[in-house]
Amino acid sequence: xxxxxxxxxxxxxxxxxxxxxxxxxxxxxxxxxxxxxxxxxxxxxxxxxxxxxxxxxxxxxxxxxxxxxxxxxxxxxxxxxxxxxxxxxxxxxxxxxxxxxxxxxxxxxx
Length: 110
What we know:
- The chain is α+β, with helices and mostly antiparallel strands.
- The chain has helices at residues 11-17, 26-32, 39-47, 55-65, 69-72, and strands at residues 2-9, 73-80.
- Helices cover 35% and strands 15% of the residues.
- The protein has a two-stranded antiparallel sheet.
- The radius of gyration is 24 Å and the shape is flat.
């Protein structure tokens, strides 16, 4: 077993608890904290877990919602099953077929 870390992004739930149901509600509130994001960026921030997040944005979200970063992000350990090598030393996962070279003939080539 291999360990990996995962997380749950709780922004949408925290907004709903505060009766904020429109993602656009956050745009002017973030601007008050000096964080200027477009409607589309805020929509993605609310509906999808971000892979990167600036500290300014994180601090602004915490200030707006009255929460800590630990409330916004729940970190969890995920156990991943790793394929064990067989007796021949090969991995049990499927291998990609070998690359096939194709020669393209142009007019005049023979």
